[in-house]
Structure prediction request, 285 residues.
Amino acid sequence: MKRELDACQWAERSISKKYRKEIWNPFIAAVKRYELVREGDKIAVCISGGKDSMLLAKLMQMLQKYTEVPFELVFLTMDPGYNELNRQKIEENAALLRIPLTVFETDIFDVANKTEKNPCYLCARMRRGHLYSQAQKLGCNKIALGHHFSDVIETTVLSMFYGAQLQGMLPKLHSTNYPGMALIRPLYCVHEDDILAWQRYNHLEFIQCACRFTEAAGEDAHLSKRKEIKELIRQLKRQNPDIEKSIFASLHSVCLDTFPGYKHEGEEHSFLERFERQEKDAELI
Prediction:
């Protein structure tokens, strides 16, 4: 008699079988290409309760099970002030997917909601700081966040259209405020549409933003602009289905020689510096 799988086993099986090409393979490709996981790492997988972080947790759990590279995991959930229903939903989903949560409390929502100037930006910065701090206390050397391929594309276009700069999103980076700590993004090559398809296939329901500010005051301007960029990319894909691949590839082959200005390690540079050096070199010939 064929053994029936429970919800967690179905979710894991769907990753390794049905969505192997769309989720598991791109996840492994990012881990290898960007050297995100190394022997001896202790990684805090940061779980907000949304679809991205929950899938990330399950992927990292499966990676630890199947890889020959030994590393440790902590599944870290920060409660910034969730209401009772959202907190309960996170814990229920974690239990369903057999993800052992380590939860700690903060008052971030209360602090961020008291500021009138860009509370979402303040909330994001405070969240990141608390996660780094708690992960470090637990002996971790890395935190893993659930940013995916679509986030990378949207951030690039968003920064160009509304930030007046060409700015990408790195797959990993060192923390400037927490020495010895790094941030990794293992979903870097996984498309959001595929994450949504996996969620629907397994009949899973995850929390959304859960922020009391957006619930009370409406959508934040930054989130509104991001939705606008999502729709723009969706429209462009109708004409060019490979538009996202082209944007992603361009981030890996930036030609600085063609840019009139750029910033490196916080210092601004102009093409005139190179132009003047070329003139001097020509004079010496």
Notes: The CA atoms of residues 5 and 13 lie 9 Å apart. The radius of gyration is 21 Å. The mean pLDDT is 91.
